[in-house]
Amino acid sequence: MENKIRRTAWTALILLTALSFWPSVAAAAEAKLNGGNTAWILTSTALVLFMTIPGLALFYGGLVRSKNVLSVLMQCFSITCLVSILWLVYAYSLAFSGGNAFVGGLGKAFFKGVSFGSMTGDIPETVFAMFQLTFAIITPALIIGAFAERMKFSAVFLFTGLWLTFVYAPVAHWVWGGGWLDAMGALDFAGGTVVHINSGVSALVCAVLLGKRHGFPDQPPSPHNLTMTVTGASMLWVGWFGFNAGSALAADGAAGMAMLVTHMSSAAAALTWMFIEWSKFGKPSALGIATGAVAGLVGITPASGFVGPIGGLLIGVATGFVCFNAVGIIKQKLRIDDSLDVFPVHGVGGMVGALLTGVFVSSGLGGAGLAEGVSMGSQVGIQIVSIIATTVYAGAGSFVILKVVDALVGLRASAEDEQVGLDPSQHNETGYEI
Predict the structure, then answer these.
(1) Cα(114)–Cα(129) distance, integer angstroms
(2) pLDDT tens per residue, range 242-281
């Protein structure tokens, strides 16, 4: 009898000891690295970086005149380097560490605490930080299309650093870092507000403040190499799978759906743009179908992990139609020289996509479903708030930053430098042998 009591006591003690460690065991299980997810995000990171260099660099480079091609390539390349260093020093921390509803703190400055063993979900935090860095790189790089062929390199460099700090990082925190739009329930799977509305609105402000290129709009400059542009657009299309499907942060069903709807939206928008152009001008153009494809990629970005195939298709058609007409309004009616159509494609396309995300997320329309207790009308209202907030903040922030940069180094190259070209005047080299 005594032995039986002793055995029972030891059994109870062992069970109590095991239960006392249960939270630690559970936490360890939660933090266990998932090799498949990690491999996919590593691949996605490379794809998104590929979108900026060489994808965006070639897309934009072909659209400018030959005397300015190197300036565009140089801007994309240098932005990649500058943003990478600032991301390490403080920008990652401002976007993704604790802070307040508006901006993160400096707890992760210089990647403090980002070690071999630190995790974000079931992937290493190093991988998450690097993946998010590629988004921070391409966003200011998109803006250069608005001031192509006329902004001084020193101004581009200074503007990028300030814009990343005071515009991109706070908006990223609002939506993805636990900020106020995230708390409100705004849906932005891969960057409709953070990347595209943010950059598109900022680009419009840049175009207005810098003024028109000489000869615009009566003698609009022609692209010097459309082969380069279509090649860049093709690279963007492929890289966008990492942009959208990678934002699931897992190799799962959400990533698969994001990839599928991304492709369908781009194809639908490309054909929509092509057929409108064909009907209006009598012939379809390679530039038109490529621009339409990019517009479709922009439109599906905020919705990609939330909508189904039909939603992706319809968002592509809507984005292609709206963005095509937005280009005409900006350049022909308002006579704003947004050189490479950044606002009508990225700004307007991001707005269309963000708004329609609130509609097609509904499970009744094939989407992932609305949050519990949220109606379609409520979600659309939240999406509108996110669009307005990003538009106002990006526009006002960019205006102030541009004024500061203008006071420090001047914004626009001289008329003589623009005439000669930014390649020789800003970089003392040329893209082609004469």
Answers:
(1) 9
(2) 999 999 999 999 999 999 999 999 999 999 999 999 999 9
